[in-house]
Amino acid sequence: MSVRACVLLLCLILAACVGPSRKPARSRWTPPVETPERFRACVAAMRAEGSQVDALPDRRFDNGCSATSSVKLVAIGIPVTNLGAVKCGLALPFARWVRNDVQGQAARWLGGYVTKIESFGSFACRPVNNQAGNRLSEHGRANAIDIAAFVLKDGRRITVKQGWNGGDERVRGFLRSLHKAACGRFAVVLGPDANALHADHFHFDMGNGPYCR
């Protein structure tokens, strides 16, 4: 065997022993096909985990917008303002984020308890970034939620706009930890580092992903 062949064989052996140097990427997420069975199972799972939700009738509009397989979030642990119809496939991980991540990180970083979450809404029949000519936003499918602020029991109000790059490192840590946790739950997560249009809120959706910025 030539020296070159020996070197190549040795490299292959070492690569097999050491394994890949990078962690495997998250698998590509595509929204599942909606069926009545999946919707009923999703609603049942939310209720089993303690959420109070009302199943909503499907709505479709001539301009391509829709609110199908959606629920109204009645109670998910913390009141969330301004939410309308939310597709159940988004509502389920959102309720988990609210109950587990928001309260846990508030206690860790701020020594406090969140009593209200302020949102910019869920369903809105509009194109991406509200720019004419863009494709339909996931908001137009009731498949996105925008989160702007958190109100604590002691009266503090933490906003994404002022807190993300603000002077309080605890607030920065709180918001970044929530953003990071969201990236493990939603297909797409956008925040202030994504672009100027998201400087004042977190955007979560269950469209095609994963994408976290």
Our count of domains comes out at 1
Oligomer type: single chain
Structural class: alpha+beta
Low-pLDDT segments: 1-25
What is the N-to-C order of secondary-structure elements (H for helix, E for strand)?
HHEEEEEHEEEHHEEE
Q: What's the overall average pLDDT, rounded? A: 88
Terminal Cα separation, in Å?
50 Å
Number of strands: 11
* Main beta-sheet annotation: 6 strands, mixed
Helix content: 25-40%
Rg computed from alpha carbons, rounded to a whole number of angstroms: 21 Å
InterPro entries: Extensin-like_C
Keywords: Signal
Protein name: Extensin family protein
Q: Would you write up a description of this structure?
A:
The structure is a single chain. Helices cover 33% and strands 21% of the residues. With 213 residues, the protein is an alpha+beta fold. The chain has one domain. Strand 7 (144-152) and strand 8 (157-159) form a beta hairpin. Helix 2 (36-48) packs parallel to helix 3 (88-110) and helix 3 (88-110) packs antiparallel against helix 5 (169-183). It is globular and about 45 Å long. It comes from Sphingomonas montanisoli. Residues 1-16 form the signal peptide. InterPro entries: Extensin-like_C (IPR009683). Residues 41-213 form the Extensin-like C-terminal domain.
Topology of helices and strands:
Blueprint lengths: L2 H16 L17 H13 L3 E4 L3 E2 L5 E2 L2 E6 L10 E2 H23 L3 E8 L22 E9 L4 E3 H4 L5 H15 L4 E3 L11 E4 L5 E2 L1
Parallel strand pairs: 9-11
Antiparallel strand pairs: 1-4, 2-3, 4-5, 6-7, 7-8, 7-10, 9-10
